[in-house]
Please model this.
Amino acid sequence: MNHVYYTQVQGQMGILGIKKCDFVLCTELDIFIVEVPFDPCFWERCRKKLIDFYENLVLPEILFPRVKFGLDPFRYEFAL
Model:
């Protein structure tokens, strides 16, 4: 499926552990329903990127705020 909501749908399915869902698009003229199967390979790539984004950009900004002080955000690299 090549749709702007594909990543969001796969992410929600991955987080909730759902194997398939119906994507429903409603317009004034019709209702369109597509069954979307869960893609574990796609989700694993997204999951890794989400973890990296949260751990290296969001969490550090929460712990060591820069943006609210008008400073440029930057990437932290934590050694685990």
Notes: The longest strand covers residues 20-26. Helices lie at 6-16, 40-63.
